[in-house]
Each structure stands twice: as C-alpha cells, then as structure tokens.
Write a structure and sequence with these properties.
elongated; 35% strand; two-stranded antiparallel ribbon
Length: 179
C-alpha cells in the first residue's frame, strides 16, 4: 500500500501527463555457479576481471539476468594463476512495462539499472570467497551501465527470449477431438 502511494505521488510530481514510469521489482538472487581455486598465497597486487551477462526474457513482464564474473590473479605459480574465482549470479525481476517483442539492449528499459542492482551481490560473494581464504581484497566499485555499453556487441553479452508464443499452445490430442 505504501509503495503504491509513493508511485502515485511520483507520477503526480514527475509525470503530470500520466505516462507510465518504468520500474522494476527485484525478486531474488541465486548463485548457480561458484568456483574458487587457490594454488599459492601470493602477495596480490591486482586482479584481472572478466564479465559476462545473459538477459533471459521469461514473459512480457519478467526478466532474469545472469551476471558472471571471473577474477584471477596476474601472479602465476608454475604457469597457473594463483587465484581463480568464477561466480554466476541470477537475479529475477518483474517490470511495470511490457518487454518489446524483439528485445535489444536499447529497447529494454532499465536493463542497466537491473544489472547494477545485481552487481553488489556478485562483488560481495567474490569478496567473501577471497576473505575466507585469507585475502583482504575487495573489488572496486564499477559503473555497470557503462560496462554494458562497452561490451554490448561482444560475445560476453546475450539476450534470450524464452517467452512461449501464443500460437504454439499445445494442440488437442486425437482422443480429445473425438470426444
């Protein structure tokens, strides 16, 4: 009830012409993959970071983001990275707007904000893995929206539309047709 009142107030203040304010509700976060390996305990100066992101369109108003990060040390021990941490986080979102039938990074409102809301969970999980193994390393803050713009056309970014088209509804069985 309180949220609805705030939305109405925001609409009156910011949208006097009654246009819809795009918004999303952040559901839950799960970690389908966590891989951590450490060979030696080097003095860690810097960590390499690599990201991936998959946008999964589940329905007209439901999006799931799979944000992955791989962190590894630049220091090597017998040609192997001393530290390697790979984490995937899955965030579930419900939107106040319908998602375009041909979704792209540019026509899904607030997709950058959704990713930015998920990143602190990934960052904390990396920090937790490193800290529990005796390393006080914290990933620096990241402009996730700019990161999305930078790798939007790379293989590290993908959009999958998993909505079921209405015409693909199950056809009746032969036994159902005859009565």
């Amino acid at each position: 009830l309180r949220i609805e009142r705030l939305r109405l107030l925001a609409r009156k203040i910011f949208m006097p012409d009654n246009t819809e304010i795009p918004s999303f509700t952040f559901g839950k976060v799960t970690f389908p993959k966590i891989i951590f390996g450490m060979i030696a305990t080097p003095k860690i100066e810097t960590l390499d970071q690599a990201f991936k992101m998959n946008v999964l369109i589940m329905s007209d108003n439901e999006v799931r983001l799979l944000l992955g990060i791989q962190v590894s040390s630049k220091e090597k021990y017998q040609e192997t990275n001393c530290i390697m941490c790979q984490i995937d986080a899955l965030g579930e979102y419900h939107t106040s707007f319908k998602i375009d039938k041909k979704p792209t990074l540019d026509n899904i409102p607030m997709i950058g904000n959704m990713a930015a809301a998920l990143f602190p969970f990934v960052r904390e999980k990396v920090h937790s893995c490193l800290q529990s193994n005796g390393m006080a390393v914290l990933l620096p803050p990241l402009n996730v929206i700019q990161m999305l713009k930078d790798f939007a056309n790379s293989s590290a970014f993908a959009i999958q539309d998993l909505r079921v088209p209405p015409d693909s509804a199950k056809a009746p069985l032969e036994s159902e047709k005859s009565g």
